[in-house]
Design brief:
Elements lengths: L1 H5 L2 H22 L2 E14 L2 H4 L3 E5 L5 E10 H4 L7 E6 L8 E3 L1 E4 L8 E4 L3 E21 L6 E8 L3 E7 H4 L4 E7 L7 E10 L12 E2 L3 E18 L9 E3 L9 E6 L1 H4 L5 E3 L13 E6 L8 E3 L6 E6 L1 E3 L1 E8 L3 E4 L6 E5 L4 E8 L1 H4 L9 E4 H7 L8 E6 L9 E2 L4 E7 L5
């Protein structure tokens, strides 16, 4: 039996080897090993918590978390079963190098026994690792567009005033301010809306980076829209200048307009800003009063100046020295007027001519001429002032009215004797 097994052993081994070769040839011809390309295979990063839990963040550089092409060499039968989604690419953070690169491991979710090779167009994922930073910014507000004519933008308020940013230190450091903007084009009433928070760098360029995390992205905003109104400012004065001086009656700056703003209800009954006389006291002055008036303290509640630069107004109350002038008046130019019916009256004790001395500002006194002045004794007026209901016969001392301008007075009054007599005496 042993001789039968060992007889022609060489021939038998050659037969077995030939059979194996024939089997391989047949399989190679029927199921050859071929290459197949797969595109855009994503790389899954494993154990990234090793980075984030240490207070750091990472960024994949150069798109290295996507393999543009993977080539698999395997028998045709195996290749026919493989799709893009069957290609598995991973990079384990535990294997990160000192250069912050991680080798990519390629495999499939099918049997890998028959796969000859699997290679990618890249073999490492490149990372940028840096410290994570948290930054809080005060929210700023802005508006865009123009409100309707006759209106202006009032107070802008938000329901929150801070936003907290989290992200890579290099990115967070770029953010200089956080702003919410509201469009007010053509508006005539208050605006209440939600607005997106936008981030800007120091050059007012928008910073948009998906690695930035915000605790809030939308906030409530209220924009008050105020109505405007142009009104005059009216001044008045109190007090009397020192003896020998007189206010001209003018106030430099009186009647000039300012623009105020507020709710329509607050402006409805405003026609002027009236500065009280106490603000301009000229008592005892010998020269013009020049004073700065802050208009804001005289505005009604909930009303404001549109231009704050107009708040302080310089007001001048001119005060000039008085002059006197002597005028010779002929006695015949003094007459009686308004004699009640049934009353017989006459005046006496007047010289053929007499001197009156008038005092006032040069502009008023300088133009007075004696020939243009007439003295009158208004009998009816005198009776009213003395509470005389009916003419009572007798002799009375009465002042003569020369019809002088309001700001001109006599140094000494001129009187005459008024005689009221019974009709039969006449």
């Amino acid at each position: 039996m042993k001789n039968k097994l060992t007889r022609n052993i060489g021939l038998k081994l050659a037969s077995v080897l030939l059979a194996v070769i024939l089997w391989l040839v047949v399989n190679t011809v029927n199921n050859p090993t071929v290459p197949q390309s797969y595109y855009n295979i994503p790389v899954t990063l494993l154990n990234t918590d090793l980075i984030t839990e240490s207070g750091q963040v990472y960024e994949v550089l150069d798109g290295t978390d996507m393999i543009s092409r993977v080539v698999v060499r395997a028998p045709r039968s195996t290749i026919s079963e493989l799709k893009d989604e069957n290609i598995i690419a991973t990079a384990d953070v535990r294997d990160i190098s000192s250069l912050d690169t991680i080798a990519i491991k390629l495999t499939t979710d099918r049997s890998n026994r028959d796969i000859s090779s699997i290679t990618g167009s890249i073999d490492t994922v490149k990372l940028k690792i840096e410290n994570e930073k948290i930054k809080s910014l005060a929210l700023k507000t802005s508006t865009s567009g123009e409100v309707a004519d006759g209106y202006l933008i009032g107070e802008v308020t938000t329901d929150q005033n801070l936003v907290r940013l989290t992200g890579p230190e290099s990115v967070i450091d770029q953010v200089a301010k956080a702003v919410v903007d509201v469009n007010v084009e053509g508006m005539t009433g208050d605006i209440v809306t939600n607005a997106e928070i936008k981030l800007y760098d120091a050059e007012d360029q928008i910073v948009s980076d998906e690695r930035i995390t915000q605790n809030i992205r939308l906030i409530g905003v209220k924009v008050s829209i105020w109505q405007t109104l142009s009104v005059p400012v009216n001044y008045s004065i109190t007090g009397t200048p020192s003896q020998g001086y007189h206010a001209t009656g003018e106030i430099v700056g009186n009647g000039e307009n300012v623009v105020i703003g507020g709710k329509a209800s607050a402006l409805r009954n405003i026609s002027a800003i009236d500065v009280p006389a106490e603000a301009l006291d000229i008592s005892g002055l010998t020269e013009s009063l020049v004073k700065e008036i802050d208009l804001r303290q005289y505005l009604p509640d909930n009303v404001f100046l549109v231009d704050s630069a107009e708040a302080i107004r310089e007001v001048t109350v001119p005060i000039e020295v008085e002059i006197s002038k002597r005028l010779e008046i002929r006695g015949e130019r003094v007459q009686m007027t308004n004699i009640p019916e049934g009353c017989v009256a006459s005046i006496s004790e007047l010289d053929e001519s007499f001197i009156i001395e008038v005092i006032g500002l040069s502009r008023d006194v300088g133009t007075l001429q004696a020939q243009n002045i007439t003295g009158t004794v208004d009998v009816a007026k005198w009776m009213r002032e003395t509470n005389m209901d009916e003419p009572q016969p007798g002799f009375y001392t009465v002042e003569v009215d020369f019809g002088l301008p309001d700001d001109v007075r006599l140094r000494e009054t001129v009187t005459v004797t008024l005689h009221i007599s019974e009709p039969e005496e006449q």
